[in-house]
UniProtKB/TrEMBL annotation, chains A, B, C:
Protein name as it appears in the record: Hydroxyethylthiazole kinase
Matches recorded under CDD domains: THZ_kinase
Pfam families, per the entry: HK
EC number: 2.7.1.50
Species name: Hominiventricola aquisgranensis
Record carries keyword Kinase: yes
Catalyzed reactions per annotation: 5-(2-hydroxyethyl)-4-methylthiazole + ATP = 4-methyl-5-(2-phosphooxyethyl)-thiazole + ADP + H(+)
One term of GO molecular function: hydroxyethylthiazole kinase activity
């Protein structure tokens, strides 16, 4: 059994509870994909209960789409740190507005994150690069390509080292680094960018995987990235075969996570490690 | 025609408007299942309009998942009481945090509820029992089983009597009591706990059924529980046959409510009354 | 190529970014239908970033379902006016409560809208007529029928002229006017009123279409209305054929927008212009 399959087995066995402070656009999909993966979602995000609710969870996900809840993320994140519960950050559109830049600064100062997953524009912004991405979508100029792959690997490795966290970039090419190891993953499909929430769902999955395999967050994050990419490929095959569209694709994507076996994950994952 | 079928006919004929103060995780599903059942949803929840909006509704649903809107629930609930409009409570995760315990106390003191539907952990908490359920999911220790069924029936009967309301517990075994009659229902399937919102949707359905059959909220609640369970069984058959997952199951569940006939409800309902 | 097909081509080519200040009930569907149409959604609605986020969008949609965010709509709408970005209003349930009547008054005083889309009750209210519609659904007494069509055409033409905007009414019969031209459209199906969000989705689509064809908002709005109606017909055919319900219909509706071709739009649109 590969390490990815081991992580998936742990998720299925532990059924980790994942608390999400997340945005209203994609919250239902995030909850359903956590359930599909075998976890249990909790969407308690009120500042007066966010810390108390952590008493029975295995991971906390902070999604900056819920920008009005930054204070809840800080209170929850600090309490999770105190309890040694992994915390995952999705820095949605972080470079896009001053409000988000300020929120990210506060979050990174006050909370230690186990993993941070964003698109290339978001992660480049966190690495201090000039970025052109606006809002939730990656800019073409920022995207990770075969050409800039060595530079991007260096960038996320340094960012991971400096923040002491796992950094994950999702896109046509995915990258994950913990500052020592760096993995390049090549699963997924283009239709994932034609639904809302594929990034948010992936971050929620990382929460479930890191929650179940807290001893190795790098491998857990890579496994979640691979699982999501393979699910996307399965859903894309159906979409092409049946002539359906992005709404059915979304449903099939979550279904594919629901039905994903350890064997499929092992066979389907396409990655190199550096 | 059975009494359940009569209730369903009333829902189809009256097309009750159901106002929901509910949480952002499952609000879309709640609206769509009310529409599937034949009702009309209204999600007006702002404290400055929640009472005024009641002028043309047949039922109000207060879902404690929207914990930040407790004040709206109290304002709306009191006005609904004044207007003799049925009010249904979903005490989401009520025992989980102090914020929720306090909110439930206020709600039960200030509003009279026609029906309260929760999982076994939530209802046991309201009955003053020690509970182990954390968050939105029932704890295995709290769940209603064949073994503890007599105790559970007694518990909800007493709670119903003391609060002067219909109490409904959904789970593998469903229980409904109005303090006099108690019904045990055995429809449903395990996949219902692998989607978010099956509880919230059921409570919204109870709103529609109680709104259309306000003269007998006990039977209306039982009919909604049976309808939801049968819809779950129909969706589960499709899931197994087609090898789909929880996302398609959610869609099929709402579809099954949309297509549910009086005859199917009569034939499919499995229940005993005490 | 018809003018409608030209608009659709522009949407596909430009991939307009549409910023929505919209309600939590249907926000996910609104985002997915914008993506289906070929645009990119941005749901930035926080008052502290709503203006800044406009720097890279082609249209702003203000949906009064998000009644608590009226201030964000005004700040964003004024900035969009300054930047000459089209702004589309969905006056959800505008006549239903004082809160909404006041919000609409402020919005219409402070923001110039390129297009306003509502149901007949909502638009009649804006036109100063007595209406009976309560909440989000059109009243039967307000609905546009073959009988009252001449009166309704006159009403929306005058409203469009007085507000200097495109007015669109959706229903069994759709009407669009810019104060000079008036179009009657007859696409769609009854099941569209059995899902939540068909109106919100349509308004979001208008945002994408008006964003991509800002030089002719009247034709862009008509094209979006026709596209949505045709998508509804495609989804309805599937629903009848497969015996599915409103949840599958919603998925198929978005899929149909995803797959809608210029040819289908040209052939399927049923309209008269006056």
């Amino acid at each position: 059994m590969t390490k990815f399959a081991e992580v998936l087995r742990k998720v299925h066995e532990m059924e980790p509870r994942v608390q999400c402070i997340t945005n209203f656009v994609t919250v239902n999909d995030c909850a359903n994909i956590i359930l599909a993966a075998g976890g249990t979602p909790s969407m308690a995000d009120h500042i007066d209960e966010v810390a108390e609710a952590l008493s029975c969870v295995q991971a906390l996900v902070c999604n900056m789409g819920a920008i009005a809840l930054t204070d809840s993320m800080i209170v929850g994140g600090k309490e999770a740190n105190r309890r040694k519960i992994p915390v995952v950050l999705d820095p949605v559109a972080v470079g896009g507005t001053q409000l988000r830049r300020d929120a990210a600064k506060r979050l990174l100062e006050e909370v230690h994150f186990t993993a941070i997953r964003g698109n290339a524009s978001e992660i480049r912004y966190l690495a201090g690069q000039q970025t052109t991405g606006a809002g939730v979508d990656v800019s073409d100029l920022d995207a990770i390509t075969e050409e800039n792959l060595p530079e991007a690997q260096e960038m996320i490795k340094n960012l991971a080292k400096s923040l002491g966290t796992v950094i994950a970039v999702s896109g046509v090419i995915d990258l994950v680094s913990d500052g020592e190891r760096t993995m390049v993953l090549r699963n997924g499909c283009a239709t994932m960018s034609r639904i809302t929430g594929s990034g948010c769902m992936l971050t929620s999955m990382i929460g479930a995987f890191v929650g179940a395999a807290a001893e190795d967050p790098f491998t857990a994050t890579c496994a979640a990235m691979a699982a999501m990419g393979i699910a996307g490929e399965i859903a894309e095959k159906k979409r092409i075969k049946n002539g359906t569209g992005n709404a059915t694709f979304r449903t099939d994507l979550i279904d594919a996570v629901f039905n994903l076996t350890e064997e499929e994950l092992t066979k389907g994952a396409r990655y190199e490690i550096f």
